[in-house]
């Protein structure tokens, strides 16, 4: 009998074969079971003592004839047809009758009885006794199959309950996945290997989430190419079943798995779907020489049941990953907010004070040192802002600070006009209600400087003042007054910008040729 046979069924069939031999006076007896494709599954014999034809010979020479017959078959000199060595050939009377199979049973077979050399043919009474014993063998086989189905159903319920408990505990969804591939697929379905894959974000690779069997769990593989059968199933959402999975076009396992998986025959690739979304793929395989391989594809229903649980576990695993990422982002945002609200704000205020101090000083050495200090502060602020932008989500990452945009516009005008304006900044330019108008303010600084400065300008002062309710930009030219000489089109552009923000423009000319342009917008 095959090594994987149920010991209780093996003992029962052996006893039936022995009883058949005793009742008929036969020298030997054998019960041969096959599957629906007539592949040999089990053999139980009694009294063979080396003279009985081997199982393969029985299958090839007599099995088909007996199974296709409505009654017991009478065969003579079977060894002449079965390839038994010439030294063991001779007269052998052999009778065979079918082991009955119910519609639910997966196996059927033949009870063979053989007499010694030269023995007479079996009588009708002996044939009836053989038929009764064949019926008993069929009942034993069906009972064993019922017991096996019940045992597997119990295993299915037990594993399902265990996985469900793991998912409800919210401890480790990965453990639930390993329970599916190990206890579910391997033990209940009798598979030799099972694995769970899922797509890797923003990558053409597939992640190996769980794997068990054929030593693959010890191979250093964490991902595989999406250009494979697994990737095809993940994209299409359609399952794939094959009697020889390794021969299907597109089969492309990781190099580290190739040798171990070369023994695989039947296999399935089942998409893991949760809420109509394909989250991953469950791969199940059986060795070609495995006794379970004969009925591997008939396990589809049970594999799909475990696939549903694997999909839920994978969904929980993704939710846990998203939750962990969210916690990290919240912590980063907290750190970034604290830096932005306190440290950077203080540094920005200090830098603005230094800019104001540099404008007030007339000593070159003092201005040089202040400018150096300003450069150091700017570098520190930029490093901290870069760090904040890396920790905050893209949706929360802003552009340059308001004061930096103002300085950039000043530098731009300085290069064009060859003059260094004096900058005075008062108030908090990085306040949220001010930062919302940073684009208009920067453009207004550029346009106002362009309008106010002339070739004869001796000094230009730029003042940006942030009050509780308004933001005021003032550009004062201490050289040749501009007055009515300012082109109306340029003034209208400045006025339009102010009005678009709910503000206004004011141009004043003082004694001594000094002209001031004030640009007002609400700050709240």
TrEMBL record:
Residues 8-151, 172-324 form the GAF domain. It holds the Pfam family GAF. GO terms for cellular component: membrane. Residues 78-99 are annotated as: Disordered. The keyword Ion transport does not apply. Signal peptide: none annotated. Keywords: Kinase, Transferase, Two-component regulatory system. GO terms for molecular function: phosphorelay sensor kinase activity; protein dimerization activity. InterPro entries: GAF, GAF-like_dom_sf, HATPase_C_sf, Sensor_HK_TwoCompSys, Sig_transdc_His_kin_sub3_dim/P. This is Signal transduction histidine kinase. It comes from Actinopolymorpha pittospori. The lineage of its organism: Bacteria, Bacillati, Actinomycetota, Actinomycetes, Propionibacteriales.
